[in-house]
Design brief:
Largest sheet: 4 strands, antiparallel
Shape: elongated
Radius of gyration: 34 Å
Strand order of the largest sheet: 1-2-3-4
Structural class: alpha+beta
Number of helices: 6
Low-confidence stretches: none
Helix content: 40-55%
Strand content: 5-15%
Number of strands: 4
Order of helices and strands: HHEEHHEEHH
Length: about 230
């Protein structure tokens, strides 16, 4: 039998797995003796968790942001409607002595009567702020940021509404201000919301809290250094 195999140049008896060429691409037999079956790789599977907060949490926080923005906007617009109807052509009214008074003016500038000669520029800035807030809210994962962005969105939208619908015209409308702070400046509810949002954003930045709810990497670096020192 072996003589016939040598003359024919090919074996008549199949080679055992140990005799097959381990680098032959046509040989389907695995070279790992511990291998018991074919391996399957799922390209869609990954052990790395998806970045950002869970979708359910993002939805809840977005609803919180939207609710804060709506309440802020309604309070601002209703208070302005009342101020126009009750304070037009009226002398200032004291609320807390002379420190806080009701004093109606039409303001072509920004919050607290700042930048009165740049109404068109301020209108464009308000639109940009709205777009940025909406885009950032897609990564929302922090209650603090939900409050901050909600206040900012409601306040910016409140003053933008005045610039669009009030006299003297589209994009140049004067904002209704009626809260006089000791004659330092005069503002409205939207201004209070915008300043509160700015303070809250500053505090969140100082504490290293990102929009998605995670801490800054520098805090993680401090923990790693402490572990290495231990």
């Amino acid at each position: 039998m072996h003589g016939l195999q040598d003359e024919a140049g090919a074996p008549l008896i199949p080679a055992t797995p140990a005799q097959r060429d381990p680098i032959d691409p046509a040989d389907p037999t695995p070279t790992d003796p511990t291998h018991t079956g074919p391996t399957h790789t799922d390209p869609t599977h990954s052990d790395t968790p998806a970045p950002g907060p869970p979708a359910a949490r993002r939805r809840r926080l977005f609803l919180l942001l939207a609710g804060i923005a709506v309440v802020t906007y309604l309070l601002d617009q209703l208070s302005k409607w009342w101020a126009v109807s009750a304070l037009t052509d009226q002398p200032p009214r004291d609320l807390i002595g002379s420190f806080l008074r009701l004093d109606l003016i039409r303001n072509p500038g920004a919050a607290f009567s700042i930048g009165t000669g740049n109404t068109w520029v301020l209108t464009i800035v308000a639109v940009v702020v709205l777009v940025v807030v909406i885009r950032v809210s897609r990564r929302l994962g922090s209650i603090g940021w939900a409050w901050a962005l909600g206040l900012l969105l409601g306040g910016a939208l409140g003053n933008l509404t005045d610039r669009v619908v009030r006299e003297p015209g589209l994009g140049r409308g004067h904002v209704v201000d009626f809260l006089n702070y000791n004659s330092w400046f005069i503002g409205n509810i939207a201004d209070i919301a915008i300043v509160s949002a700015a303070i809250l954003i500053g505090l969140l930045a100082l504490t290293g809290r990102s929009v998605d709810g995670t801490r800054e990497s520098r805090e993680a670096g401090r923990h790693e250094a402490a572990d290495d020192g231990a």
